[in-house]
Amino acid sequence: MKILVATDAWHPQINGVVRTLESLAVAVRKHGAEIEFLTGDGFPSFPLPTYQSIRCALPNAREIARRIEQAAPDAVHIATEGPIGHAARRYCLKRRLPFTTAYMTRFPEYVSARLPMPASWIYAALRRFHRAASATMVSTNSLKEELRELGFSNLVIWTRGVDTELFRPDRATLLDLPRPIFLSVGRIALEKNLPAFLSLDLPGSKVVIGEGPQMAELRLRFPEAHFLGPMTGETLAAHIAAADVFVFPSRTDTFGIVQLEALASGVPVAAYPVAGPRDVIGDLHIGVLDENLGAACRRALTLSRDACRAFALTRSWDVSARQFLSHCQRWASTARMAPSPASQASCW
Question: Shortest CA distance to 57 belongs to which of 13, 115, 107?
Protein backbone atom coordinates (compact mmCIF):
# COMPACT_ATOMS: atom_id res chain seq x y z
CA MET A 1 0.00 0.00 0.00
CA LYS A 2 1.27 3.46 -0.90
CA ILE A 3 0.12 6.44 1.16
CA LEU A 4 0.72 10.07 0.26
CA VAL A 5 1.01 12.30 3.33
CA ALA A 6 0.52 16.02 2.72
CA THR A 7 2.20 18.15 5.37
CA ASP A 8 3.18 21.77 5.89
CA ALA A 9 5.45 20.73 8.77
CA TRP A 10 8.72 19.34 7.41
CA HIS A 11 12.46 19.86 7.44
CA PRO A 12 14.22 22.03 8.50
CA GLN A 13 11.53 22.36 11.19
CA ILE A 14 12.20 20.43 14.40
CA ASN A 15 8.95 19.57 16.15
CA GLY A 16 6.72 16.73 17.24
CA VAL A 17 4.79 16.63 13.95
CA VAL A 18 7.94 16.16 11.89
CA ARG A 19 9.35 13.53 14.26
CA THR A 20 6.03 11.69 14.28
CA LEU A 21 5.82 11.55 10.48
CA GLU A 22 9.45 10.48 10.11
CA SER A 23 9.05 7.66 12.62
CA LEU A 24 5.76 6.60 11.06
CA ALA A 25 7.34 6.33 7.61
CA VAL A 26 9.97 3.94 8.96
CA ALA A 27 7.48 1.86 10.97
CA VAL A 28 4.96 1.25 8.16
CA ARG A 29 7.64 -0.37 5.97
CA LYS A 30 7.62 -3.39 8.28
CA HIS A 31 3.99 -3.88 7.25
CA GLY A 32 4.64 -3.71 3.50
CA ALA A 33 3.46 -0.11 3.16
CA GLU A 34 5.22 2.99 1.88
CA ILE A 35 4.73 6.66 2.71
CA GLU A 36 5.60 9.44 0.30
CA PHE A 37 5.49 13.04 1.48
CA LEU A 38 3.94 16.01 -0.24
CA THR A 39 5.63 19.03 1.36
CA GLY A 40 6.36 22.67 0.62
CA ASP A 41 9.74 21.82 -0.95
CA GLY A 42 10.13 23.57 -4.30
CA PHE A 43 7.34 26.11 -3.75
CA PRO A 44 7.81 29.83 -3.02
CA SER A 45 7.56 30.54 0.70
CA PHE A 46 7.66 33.28 3.31
CA PRO A 47 8.68 33.25 7.01
CA LEU A 48 5.92 33.24 9.59
CA PRO A 49 5.86 36.52 11.56
CA THR A 50 6.44 34.94 14.99
CA TYR A 51 8.48 31.97 13.72
CA GLN A 52 11.15 33.33 11.42
CA SER A 53 12.78 29.87 11.23
CA ILE A 54 9.55 28.38 9.83
CA ARG A 55 8.55 29.17 6.26
CA CYS A 56 5.02 28.91 4.92
CA ALA A 57 4.79 27.48 1.40
CA LEU A 58 2.65 28.98 -1.37
CA PRO A 59 1.68 25.90 -3.40
CA ASN A 60 0.67 25.95 -7.05
CA ALA A 61 -2.51 23.93 -7.71
CA ARG A 62 -1.21 22.50 -10.98
CA GLU A 63 2.05 21.37 -9.39
CA ILE A 64 0.19 19.87 -6.42
CA ALA A 65 -1.94 17.87 -8.86
CA ARG A 66 1.15 16.75 -10.79
CA ARG A 67 2.90 15.55 -7.64
CA ILE A 68 -0.15 13.66 -6.38
CA GLU A 69 -0.73 12.00 -9.75
CA GLN A 70 2.95 11.12 -10.10
CA ALA A 71 2.85 9.47 -6.67
CA ALA A 72 -0.30 7.52 -7.64
CA PRO A 73 -1.10 6.64 -4.01
CA ASP A 74 -3.64 4.17 -2.75
CA ALA A 75 -4.60 6.60 0.01
CA VAL A 76 -4.14 10.28 0.82
CA HIS A 77 -3.61 11.54 4.37
CA ILE A 78 -3.50 15.26 5.20
CA ALA A 79 -1.41 15.84 8.32
CA THR A 80 -1.69 19.63 8.66
CA GLU A 81 -4.22 22.37 7.97
CA GLY A 82 -1.82 24.79 6.24
CA PRO A 83 -1.51 25.75 2.55
CA ILE A 84 -0.16 22.31 1.51
CA GLY A 85 -2.95 20.58 3.42
CA HIS A 86 -5.60 22.84 1.88
CA ALA A 87 -4.22 22.29 -1.63
CA ALA A 88 -4.24 18.49 -1.22
CA ARG A 89 -7.75 18.64 0.25
CA ARG A 90 -8.98 20.74 -2.69
CA TYR A 91 -7.51 18.24 -5.17
CA CYS A 92 -9.25 15.30 -3.49
CA LEU A 93 -12.60 17.07 -3.24
CA LYS A 94 -12.59 18.00 -6.93
CA ARG A 95 -11.92 14.39 -7.87
CA ARG A 96 -14.18 12.90 -5.21
CA LEU A 97 -11.29 10.98 -3.73
CA PRO A 98 -11.54 9.94 -0.07
CA PHE A 99 -8.85 11.16 2.30
CA THR A 100 -8.06 11.18 6.00
CA THR A 101 -6.79 14.05 8.14
CA ALA A 102 -5.08 14.46 11.51
CA TYR A 103 -5.58 17.00 14.29
CA MET A 104 -2.02 17.38 15.57
CA THR A 105 -1.70 21.02 16.70
CA ARG A 106 -3.94 23.33 18.74
CA PHE A 107 -3.86 26.23 16.30
CA PRO A 108 -6.88 28.04 17.85
CA GLU A 109 -5.10 28.48 21.18
CA TYR A 110 -1.76 29.31 19.54
CA VAL A 111 -3.21 31.98 17.25
CA SER A 112 -5.53 33.59 19.82
CA ALA A 113 -2.58 33.90 22.23
CA ARG A 114 -0.83 36.14 19.68
CA LEU A 115 -3.62 37.87 17.77
CA PRO A 116 -6.95 39.48 18.78
CA MET A 117 -8.89 36.60 17.24
CA PRO A 118 -11.29 34.37 19.21
CA ALA A 119 -10.35 30.69 19.28
CA SER A 120 -13.98 29.89 18.37
CA TRP A 121 -13.49 31.45 14.90
CA ILE A 122 -10.49 29.26 14.21
CA TYR A 123 -12.27 26.16 15.49
CA ALA A 124 -15.10 26.90 13.06
CA ALA A 125 -12.61 26.96 10.15
CA LEU A 126 -10.97 23.74 11.36
CA ARG A 127 -14.35 22.00 11.64
CA ARG A 128 -14.98 22.84 7.97
CA PHE A 129 -11.54 21.62 6.99
CA HIS A 130 -11.85 18.24 8.74
CA ARG A 131 -15.55 17.68 8.04
CA ALA A 132 -14.78 16.59 4.47
CA ALA A 133 -12.40 13.85 5.61
CA SER A 134 -13.43 10.22 5.85
CA ALA A 135 -11.81 10.22 9.27
CA THR A 136 -9.85 12.63 11.43
CA MET A 137 -7.10 10.96 13.46
CA VAL A 138 -6.41 12.21 17.00
CA SER A 139 -3.77 11.03 19.44
CA THR A 140 -5.74 10.53 22.66
CA ASN A 141 -9.22 9.74 23.96
CA SER A 142 -9.39 12.98 25.93
CA LEU A 143 -8.64 15.01 22.80
CA LYS A 144 -11.24 12.97 20.92
CA GLU A 145 -13.90 13.82 23.50
CA GLU A 146 -12.87 17.47 23.59
CA LEU A 147 -13.13 17.83 19.81
CA ARG A 148 -16.42 15.95 19.70
CA GLU A 149 -17.88 18.48 22.15
CA LEU A 150 -16.64 21.24 19.83
CA GLY A 151 -18.58 19.76 16.91
CA PHE A 152 -15.92 17.67 15.13
CA SER A 153 -17.02 14.36 13.65
CA ASN A 154 -15.57 11.10 12.25
CA LEU A 155 -12.87 11.04 14.94
CA VAL A 156 -10.63 7.98 15.32
CA ILE A 157 -7.63 7.22 17.53
CA TRP A 158 -4.07 7.16 16.21
CA THR A 159 -1.65 6.82 19.11
CA ARG A 160 2.00 7.90 19.16
CA GLY A 161 5.09 5.82 19.76
CA VAL A 162 8.72 6.18 20.71
CA ASP A 163 12.01 4.88 19.30
CA THR A 164 13.26 2.90 22.28
CA GLU A 165 16.52 2.06 20.53
CA LEU A 166 17.41 5.73 20.12
CA PHE A 167 16.02 6.95 23.45
CA ARG A 168 17.42 4.79 26.24
CA PRO A 169 19.08 5.31 29.63
CA ASP A 170 22.57 4.11 28.67
CA ARG A 171 23.00 6.96 26.17
CA ALA A 172 23.30 9.54 28.96
CA THR A 173 26.02 12.12 28.41
CA LEU A 174 27.95 13.75 31.24
CA LEU A 175 26.54 17.19 32.00
CA ASP A 176 28.83 19.27 34.18
CA LEU A 177 25.96 20.94 36.03
CA PRO A 178 24.73 20.89 39.62
CA ARG A 179 22.26 18.09 40.31
CA PRO A 180 19.40 17.46 40.08
CA ILE A 181 18.93 18.44 36.44
CA PHE A 182 15.41 19.50 35.42
CA LEU A 183 15.09 19.43 31.62
CA SER A 184 12.54 20.73 29.13
CA VAL A 185 12.67 20.09 25.37
CA GLY A 186 10.64 21.80 22.68
CA ARG A 187 9.96 24.95 20.72
CA ILE A 188 10.80 28.04 22.78
CA ALA A 189 7.53 29.83 22.16
CA LEU A 190 4.60 31.33 24.02
CA GLU A 191 2.37 28.27 23.81
CA LYS A 192 4.95 26.04 25.51
CA ASN A 193 4.54 27.97 28.78
CA LEU A 194 8.25 27.78 29.63
CA PRO A 195 8.20 30.65 32.19
CA ALA A 196 6.06 28.40 34.40
CA PHE A 197 9.06 26.05 34.57
CA LEU A 198 11.90 28.57 34.55
CA SER A 199 10.41 30.67 37.35
CA LEU A 200 10.25 27.72 39.77
CA ASP A 201 12.43 27.66 42.87
CA LEU A 202 14.16 24.31 42.35
CA PRO A 203 17.46 22.85 43.50
CA GLY A 204 20.18 22.01 40.98
CA SER A 205 19.92 23.14 37.33
CA LYS A 206 17.25 24.03 34.80
CA VAL A 207 18.07 23.10 31.21
CA VAL A 208 16.17 23.93 28.02
CA ILE A 209 16.77 22.30 24.63
CA GLY A 210 15.22 23.86 21.53
CA GLU A 211 14.87 27.14 19.69
CA GLY A 212 12.11 29.60 18.97
CA PRO A 213 10.92 33.21 19.05
CA GLN A 214 11.04 33.50 22.86
CA MET A 215 14.68 32.43 23.15
CA ALA A 216 16.23 35.91 23.53
CA GLU A 217 13.54 37.10 25.94
CA LEU A 218 13.77 34.05 28.20
CA ARG A 219 17.57 34.13 28.26
CA LEU A 220 17.37 37.66 29.66
CA ARG A 221 14.58 36.89 32.13
CA PHE A 222 16.15 33.67 33.42
CA PRO A 223 19.95 34.01 33.23
CA GLU A 224 20.48 31.10 35.63
CA ALA A 225 18.87 28.64 33.18
CA HIS A 226 20.96 26.77 30.62
CA PHE A 227 19.73 27.11 27.01
CA LEU A 228 21.50 24.52 24.88
CA GLY A 229 19.85 25.22 21.51
CA PRO A 230 18.22 22.73 19.13
CA MET A 231 19.29 19.07 19.11
CA THR A 232 18.28 15.95 17.22
CA GLY A 233 19.12 12.26 17.04
CA GLU A 234 21.70 10.72 19.35
CA THR A 235 22.77 14.11 20.73
CA LEU A 236 19.22 14.85 21.87
CA ALA A 237 18.80 11.33 23.26
CA ALA A 238 22.05 11.62 25.24
CA HIS A 239 21.01 14.89 26.84
CA ILE A 240 17.51 13.70 27.74
CA ALA A 241 18.93 10.58 29.38
CA ALA A 242 21.27 12.78 31.46
CA ALA A 243 18.38 14.57 33.16
CA ASP A 244 16.83 13.69 36.51
CA VAL A 245 13.33 15.01 35.72
CA PHE A 246 11.70 15.96 32.44
CA VAL A 247 9.50 19.03 32.89
CA PHE A 248 6.59 19.47 30.48
CA PRO A 249 4.96 22.84 31.29
CA SER A 250 2.73 23.07 28.21
CA ARG A 251 -1.02 23.23 28.75
CA THR A 252 -1.95 23.10 25.06
CA ASP A 253 -0.08 20.20 23.40
CA THR A 254 -2.32 17.55 21.88
CA PHE A 255 0.08 14.82 23.02
CA GLY A 256 3.72 15.77 23.65
CA ILE A 257 5.83 13.02 22.09
CA VAL A 258 8.85 14.28 24.07
CA GLN A 259 7.22 12.80 27.17
CA LEU A 260 7.57 9.31 25.71
CA GLU A 261 11.15 10.06 24.67
CA ALA A 262 11.97 11.07 28.24
CA LEU A 263 10.31 7.98 29.70
CA ALA A 264 12.17 5.73 27.25
CA SER A 265 15.35 7.37 28.53
CA GLY A 266 14.39 6.45 32.09
CA VAL A 267 13.48 10.02 33.06
CA PRO A 268 10.23 10.66 35.01
CA VAL A 269 7.92 13.48 33.92
CA ALA A 270 6.57 16.48 35.84
CA ALA A 271 3.61 18.23 34.22
CA TYR A 272 0.25 19.87 34.72
CA PRO A 273 -2.82 17.57 34.90
CA VAL A 274 -4.07 18.49 31.42
CA ALA A 275 -4.81 16.61 28.19
CA GLY A 276 -1.60 15.15 26.83
CA PRO A 277 0.18 14.49 30.14
CA ARG A 278 -3.01 12.92 31.54
CA ASP A 279 -3.18 10.53 28.59
CA VAL A 280 0.51 9.59 28.73
CA ILE A 281 1.17 9.57 32.48
CA GLY A 282 -2.28 9.07 33.99
CA ASP A 283 -2.01 7.70 37.53
CA LEU A 284 1.03 5.54 36.76
CA HIS A 285 4.17 5.97 38.86
CA ILE A 286 6.23 7.28 35.95
CA GLY A 287 5.51 10.97 36.45
CA VAL A 288 3.71 13.47 38.63
CA LEU A 289 0.83 15.65 37.48
CA ASP A 290 0.06 18.61 39.70
CA GLU A 291 -1.19 22.18 39.33
CA ASN A 292 1.77 23.00 41.57
CA LEU A 293 4.47 22.30 38.99
CA GLY A 294 7.28 22.82 41.50
CA ALA A 295 5.81 20.14 43.78
CA ALA A 296 5.47 17.83 40.77
CA CYS A 297 9.17 18.33 39.94
CA ARG A 298 10.31 17.48 43.47
CA ARG A 299 8.10 14.40 43.77
CA ALA A 300 9.21 13.14 40.36
CA LEU A 301 12.77 12.90 41.73
CA THR A 302 11.63 9.96 43.89
CA LEU A 303 10.25 7.85 41.03
CA SER A 304 11.84 4.75 39.55
CA ARG A 305 13.77 5.26 36.31
CA ASP A 306 13.38 1.55 35.56
CA ALA A 307 9.58 1.88 35.73
CA CYS A 308 9.71 4.77 33.24
CA ARG A 309 11.74 2.69 30.79
CA ALA A 310 9.49 -0.36 31.20
CA PHE A 311 6.40 1.70 30.41
CA ALA A 312 7.97 3.22 27.28
CA LEU A 313 8.80 -0.25 25.96
CA THR A 314 5.04 -0.85 25.62
CA ARG A 315 4.61 2.25 23.41
CA SER A 316 6.28 1.20 20.17
CA TRP A 317 5.93 2.89 16.79
CA ASP A 318 4.78 -0.49 15.47
CA VAL A 319 1.47 -0.15 17.34
CA SER A 320 1.09 3.41 16.07
CA ALA A 321 1.85 2.35 12.48
CA ARG A 322 -0.70 -0.47 12.56
CA GLN A 323 -3.40 1.92 13.74
CA PHE A 324 -2.53 4.45 11.05
CA LEU A 325 -2.52 1.82 8.29
CA SER A 326 -5.83 0.40 9.47
CA HIS A 327 -7.49 3.80 9.09
CA CYS A 328 -5.89 4.45 5.69
CA GLN A 329 -6.81 1.01 4.37
CA ARG A 330 -10.41 1.41 5.45
CA TRP A 331 -10.81 4.60 3.44
CA ALA A 332 -8.30 3.95 0.66
CA SER A 333 -9.31 5.25 -2.74
CA THR A 334 -10.47 2.68 -5.28
CA ALA A 335 -10.35 5.32 -8.01
CA ARG A 336 -7.16 5.86 -9.98
CA MET A 337 -5.64 9.33 -9.69
CA ALA A 338 -6.74 11.07 -12.89
CA PRO A 339 -5.45 14.37 -14.23
CA SER A 340 -8.88 15.71 -15.13
CA PRO A 341 -11.22 16.67 -12.25
CA ALA A 342 -14.47 14.72 -11.95
CA SER A 343 -16.18 17.47 -10.03
CA GLN A 344 -15.89 21.14 -9.22
CA ALA A 345 -16.45 20.78 -5.47
CA SER A 346 -15.58 23.83 -3.44
CA CYS A 347 -12.45 23.69 -1.29
CA TRP A 348 -14.70 24.48 1.66
Answer: 13
